[in-house]
């Protein structure tokens, strides 16, 4: 192979990499806003399911479990929910805007992350005003199929209702007042329970009541 041939091959490879990079950048620029909007809509729907009796869910703060941005919210009941119809400036279509008059807190929702076996597990938990867990949800994870992904099943999630931070402890085997580990997936179980949910509930207590939970 001559020097000229080597130069041609090098130039061709550079051109291919540059063109490929430009195509990827173009695709990302087009799809990124769509993905962002979709993720936002999915999160809003998940928040509503955490406390469906609430009229509004308002962001009241943020924190960084495992250096990941997460938020916490107040779930509120309105004394009066005023609905006004307005015209969207961008689309020209009529839409409804809600105004919550005389709101009172029903409870709180916290977003968190737990370090699992093969991923960070993204979770939500709702609590009442006494910081007792009402419901939890797993928003995303990359745990092992058939083992760690059992964290999404109702038999595991339903254990959390009525638990205080003190009871958010994983036990191998049957338990009446703690959280029973998923068989073969203790790390994933602890990531959800003791890392994601418990730390989120403790944080809420510290931020919103001034009490420190040990």
Q: How are strands sequenced across the largest beta sheet? A: 1-2-5-6-7
Please give the count of helices. 3
Annotated CATH topology of the largest domain: Sufe protein. Chain: A
| Mean residue pLDDT | 86
In helices, the fraction of residues equals: 25-40%
CATH class of the largest domain reads: Alpha Beta
Which overall shape is indicated by the principal axes computed on the Cα atoms?
Answer: flat
Distance between the termini: 71 Å
Helix and strand composition category: alpha+beta
Q: What Rg, in angstroms, do the CA atoms define?
A: 23 Å
Strand residues, percent: 25-35%
Largest sheet: 5 strands, antiparallel
- Element order, helices and strands? HEEEEEEEHEEH
Indicate the multimeric state.
single chain
Which architecture name of the largest domain does CATH use?
Alpha-Beta Complex
For the secondary structure, the number of strands is: 9
The low-confidence parts are none
Return the domain count.
Answer: 2
